[in-house]
Amino acid sequence: MTDSGPTKEHIVRVELAERSYPIWISSGWLDRLGPYARHAVPHGWLCAVVADENTGSAFGEAVVDSFAAAGWSTQLHVVPPGEQSKSLEHVQKLYAALSLANADRNTLVVALGGGVVGDLAGFVAATYARGVPFLQVPTSLIAQVDSSVGGKVGVNFRDPRGFLVKNLIGTFYQPSAVFIDVNLLGSLPRREFRSGLAEVIKYGAALDECLFERIEHELATLLEREPSSLVPIVARCCELKAAVVAADERDLSGRRAVLNFGHTFGHAIEGLSSEYTHGEAVAIGMVAAAKTAELLALADETVCRRLRTVLQRAGLPVRFPPELSVERVLEVMARDKKASRGELTLVLPVRIGEVRVVRGVSPTAVREAIQWCRS
Ligand SMILES: NC(=O)c1ccc[n+]([C@@H]2O[C@H](COP(=O)([O-])OP(=O)(O)OC[C@H]3O[C@@H](n4cnc5c(N)ncnc54)[C@H](O)[C@@H]3O)[C@@H](O)[C@H]2O)c1
Ligand SMILES: [Zn+2]
After folding, report:
1. How far apart are CA 48 and CA 93, in angstroms?
2. What confidence score (pLDDT) does residue 1 get?
3. How far is the CA of 102 from the centre of ligand 2 (A)?
4. pTM here?
């Protein structure tokens, strides 16, 4: 690797005309962040790094040092960890900090954290001074393969009835670049890492059989967080997401829907039980979707079997929570944004590496699939 950039195979481009940007993927190179940011934002002088308490204490100093060494004036802003920080209150606190620092339109906002920090800092970058340059430095596996790519930013909102609506306030705002160091995943709690693996497995199962096979073969080294496995696999996931985003930037044509494989079942599980992380619920959801496809004769039984096996080996749950009422699950699924005019629309696999958006799925098949997944 030279100072002019990482090796080519570790660069993925998100092609969006004048909003195109690179995703740089490597390992053990956080100290190079400052110079890389200079490539993305040549006229920047002030850099506002947003982190949560965990990512700030683990990497804040190294990031600030790297920016300082590259001639940036740098500030670190830390929010509490967790979904509660994705709020307008924290947006306002960050506006106040930027304004006090006399931030202008050449100020670079850097998100150093998981999806929470990325969504929050991205929304601030999109709206402060009508938009300032934004760099994603994702530190969780979910953020590295999913939330840092594609430009969806925003916060949750508590409506006047007291309901917390996820991601209600937001916009599309593409970063100037995404800088991924897989070594940062070393300190990620085990459960969070495994949840991220569910999304990685989703990319293979939904879009790329070769990726799926690679995950099957390299699962042990992946679980050990070996950079030699992580770098190409994270890069491939980013490439797959980048292609979907390039075809449907604003989520209008339905092309992004393929990324929702396992998510309609998953959202219902997350909505009805607080036991599961997002990735865990998606893992169960993918098995249920594969079984539904099998019952509808869209896929043979190997699809569900292979998926279930790899998810189980990754330490993810695959059994539908027996305490959840099937009828309640169906009700919530029918309300999911993928449902249209009362009919159930699901992303179902037809083989490993290919999914289809299927409208008007019979609730009887879904019921039967859930029953099977509970046993
Ligand atoms: N914008 C999008 O397209 C998109 C896509 C998927 C998810 N999301 C959003 O992302 C969020 C979930 O992301 P997440 O799972 O990264 O959650 P998160 O940001 O809350 O991170 C999970 C936990 O891991 C900690 N953490 C992160 N990196 C760490 C590291 N390297 N070492 C130690 N601890 C670390 C965090 O402090 C936090 O406690 C949700 O709010 C979701 O809505 C957005
Ligand atoms: Zn997801």
Report:
1. 13
2. 39
3. 37
4. 0.96
Tokens of 82: 């967790």
Q: Is 75 in the pocket of ligand 1 (CB under 6 A)?
A: no
Distance CA 257, CA 355 (A): 10
Per the structure block, which two tokens stand in for 14? Answer: 């998100």
CATH number of 8-188: 3.40.50.1970
Average pLDDT over residues 289-318: 98
Domain limits, the chain: 8-188, 191-375
Homologous superfamily of the 191-375 domain (CATH) = Dehydroquinate synthase-like - alpha domain (1.20.1090.10)
Could you give the CA distance from residue 203 to residue 50 in angstroms, rounded to a whole number?
Answer: 28
d(CA 352, CA 130): 43
At 320-341, the pLDDT tens digits run 999 999 999 999 998 876 556 6
DSSP 55-82: HHHHHHHHHHHHHHHTT-EEEEEEE-SS
Q: Is the pLDDT of residue 75 over 60?
A: yes
Q: Tell me how far apart the alpha carbons of residues 369 and 338 are, in angstroms, rounded to a whole number.
A: 19
Nearest C-alpha to atom 16 of ligand 1 is from which residue? Answer: 114
- Distance in angstroms (rounded) separating the CA atoms of residues 279 and 317: 10
